[in-house]
Amino acid sequence: MATSGVRGKKLGGLGQWWGVLAGALLIAAWINKAAGPVVIVLLSSGVLLWCFFQAPVTCQAEVRGRTDGCRNNASGLLLGCHIRQHRWQKLKMLVVRRQVRAFCSGLFSDGKATVVTLAGLGSFASGLAAFIPGLADK
Ligand SMILES: [Zn+2]
């Protein structure tokens, strides 16, 4: 029983990156058009949700006395880390304070954030493109 717990933890670490796997499947679905537009839309929205609410990026919430902000792992581009004040910091920044530019600069702040942001943009574009007749189907 004790070993299964360890294995679960390992899978949990990898499981955070399922969005990348879905992204790879999405690319495969575009190359091999047998999948069809429905599969593409489903995969696209899956990847998009992952980028927004699950992707393992850095929190970056403002911390007094630190220029680089909070370094904890956050869940997704729209949410912060486990600290309660950080959790909704980015959504608040967008919705309440309208700091769109500050939010956007955080999207490319490091390698992980850039990968997740690009995956989000790509899946968003692919989700839209799937609705264009003749593009996603044969
Ligand atoms: Zn934080």
Would you spell out the secondary-structure blueprint of this structure?
Elements: H1 2-15, H2 18-31, H3 36-53, E1 56-58, E2 73-75, H4 84-87, H5 89-95, H6 100-107, H7 111-129
Antiparallel strand pairs: 1-2
The chain binds zinc ion.
Structure description:
The protein is mainly α and 138 residues long. 61% of the residues lie in helices and 4% in strands. The chain has one domain. Helix 2 packs antiparallel against helix 3. The protein is built from seven helices and two strands. The site of zinc ion has 8 residues, from loops.
**What summary fits the major beta sheet?**
2 strands, antiparallel
Task: For the largest sheet, list the strands in their spatial order.
Answer: 1-2
Straight-line distance between termini: 50 Å
**Portion in strands:** under 5%
Let me know the number of strands. 2
Overall tally of structural domains: 1
Quick recap of the structure?
This protein is mainly alpha-helical and 138 residues long.
Defining key terms:
138 residues, mainly alpha, two-stranded antiparallel ribbon, 2 strands, 4% strand, elongated, binds zinc ion
